[in-house]
Amino acid sequence: MQKRLWTVGAPLALAALVFLLYLFASSRSTLWDRDEPRFAAASAEMLSSGNYLYPIFNGNLRPDKPILIYWLMTLPLRWWGPTELACRFFSVLGTVAVCVLTYLCGRRLFSAGAGLWAMAIVASTPMMAGAGTAATADAVLLACITAAATVFLYSLRTRFALPHALLLALALGAALLDKGPVGLAVALPAIAGTWWFARGRIQPGRHGILNVLLATLAACFIFLCWAVPADRATGGEFLRQFLGHHVGDRMTMPLEHHGGNLLLMLPFYVPVLVVLFLPWTLFLPGALSALLGRRLAGTPGKWFLLSWLVPLFVIMSLVATKLPHYILPVWPALALAVAGTIDAHERGLLNARDYKWLRRGAWLAAPFAFVMAVLLLAGPATPAALQMMAGTFRLSAQFKASLQACTVILSSQRWPCAVAGAGLAIVAVLVLWQYLALRIKAAAIACFAGTVGLQLFCAGFILPAVEKLKITEPLARAIRSRVPDAEPVVTCGYSEPSLNFYLHRRVVRELPHAEAVIEWAKEAQPGVLIVPREVLVRIQRRHGVLLLQEIASAIGFNYPKGKWCELVAMHRGP
Asked: What's the chain's average pLDDT?
């Protein structure tokens, strides 16, 4: 009874905790431009139009991602209406699924205790917190990839039989429907690498290899059952743009300025991993030492984890377009390696070399943790330092905008950020004190408790405070209270996709220049123009006062552009 409580009750309780924490965080902010409102508005359009074959955003085909995430989002949108929680709900469920599946992998590789640690680790990193509370496809994709890895891992001690192939086909088919070929790019190298490098210990046999091939073909068939009708309905545009532009071009050129020269591109994901896997980066050097030395899970487990980690890291380092969340699929494997190390320490399986590398992990993680704490504590002094850094290095325009957004948050939310910085510093000191004394389990408990506490504080205080700086939702709410939903809306100089979602409009047309605004203002039928105040002043100074009535305005920070803005809503007609 006690064993069943440990192996069933404990993971269920931890999964419930993760669900409640992520659900709470998902409800504390409006949608962030630009990806979230594009997914959300396209799903709302799908629900209202009844066209479930291909996604439409702002009146145009949206071929960025396949269909699964939109189908999933329409369910809570139908239940709860167009709310942030509805759009993010399946990301929360995807995170819980990732945690449960990671527990099953940890239990299979190491022990039930290690599985619990793997759950806790994967859920308490900044990268997972971002993906698991965002209205995007990443958390669902990670759940599909982790499901495929779990099915394969549970087949290693027996044979990869037809039931395994069926489950693998469903997992890979869902991954393809959610985000395309990246699901195969993680799962298949993990399977092939494990079988090849551990071939002396495990024998897949011809039937096993054939079943994996059949599962892959079945997954592709599942994808094509949707993709072919969708492509025909769009005149061949969906697959041409999705595979040609959003997959092919993304690999060969940096889209939307997410890239750089080759010397900067190749090591891009090293600092990303170090920072966004905190606080568990502390354990990674020791975990790598123990993993390579086969002191964690033997030869098959070693090659299973390495084949999960290395190929994706290499592929994404060579792909021209760089975004931090591209390496999110390796998060469960990293969590399993760290959890296995904690478990191996408790069992006395680590050697002197492992402990040497564990201590070196402090030099890897501690500087980043304390720098982040100092930046939060410095408050008004931080923006100047960040601006100096932006001027020193060649950064993309979008990265500079993100940097400017950080400076605004730090300077405007001084006391919440200072409390978070103090908490981070205290947790870091406690963790290092336990860790350097090789009280590894106590350090891990402090890492988890401190991270959860900081996440709750940020969700409870910092996110609502930052909401006061946003501009789209309050302006859209004011417009909806004064203007019927049937009236068209146009913009000039401000075209963030959150307007579509919060105005409840299928189409928000953008006017390209001042002359188009003048022509629009002369038309007779009612309508609304949304324009930054500075653009409106410039137009009226050049062309005269527009015969429009100002019905709403809002001042806030435009996060994607990285600048302050006053938006004005001008009404045309009676």
From this structure: 86
